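Fold this sequence, please.
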Amino acid sequence: MVLIIDDERNLVRSLELALKGAGIETRGAYDGASGLRLAGEIRPDAVLLDLRLPDASGLEVLETLRKSFPGCPVIMISAHGDTRAAVQCVKAGASDYLTKPFDLDELVHLIGTTIERGRLDDEIAYRRSIGASESVIVGEHPAITRLRELVARVAASNARTVLLLGASGTGKGVIARALHQASGRVDGPFVEVNCASLPEQLLEAELFGAEKGAYTGAGQRRAGLIALAHHGTLFLDEIGELAPALQAKLLAFLESHNYRPLGSTREASADVRVIAATNRDLSREVSDGRFRADLYYRLNVVPIEIAALKDRG
């Protein structure tokens, strides 16, 4: 169930129809108070929340949702492409930030993957809570057995990059976590980011960090995800969506283990295993000029293909 909180009634109806067509149930609310009340009744799997509401700030509603439903992902939507607002939303706990108008098909896909990721996170948390020591890759089908064995071998290796290939919904996030948990980096952090979830400049700051004043809204120095993943694993989901400039910067880091935060004149270093995932055919993306060949070859040292659910028995 997806809760839509937006005062544009026509947009809410359009979103409800699009999501219904994808088999996703929805409920709509046109102001913050109604949205919060409805959230308490239906306990949604995800929330689409407008930044500007007639009775409250979307940020205020976001903060209340995060406190009341900490496991529920909230996707912020706004008619204004404001980088500062996007930063505030992400800091407040939003899983994504989208600017109107947006492509309905892409939004439906994003919501589907967001819900699936939340369910997988819940499953992993449950397994941890009951002290499950076995792999999160469960099943006896030959394809599952081969995948489990491959993950164990790769996790134990010294490979600094791993590329996960598979359609949406095949559990690439679960495989990434399994690789981390079975590796010598298990005591280090597991940090993840969806490369399609943020505008280019914001994603650059998110990955590499930023000095105070490096961009509009950068009121203080912030550490990037690469720094936070030191001695651990960095999971880059939807790597095929990475902008060309960030592809170059990521390649430089993979080659040298050094990077430069946004707005800084000094280099920093980090010991990180990078796991990238995509549902695209990256070799075709390279041929079409949309993805750097050198980055593709750097990432594709240890590829793991994940079969679709229908092929697992």
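The chain has two domains: 2-109, 137-311. The longest strand covers residues 272-278.
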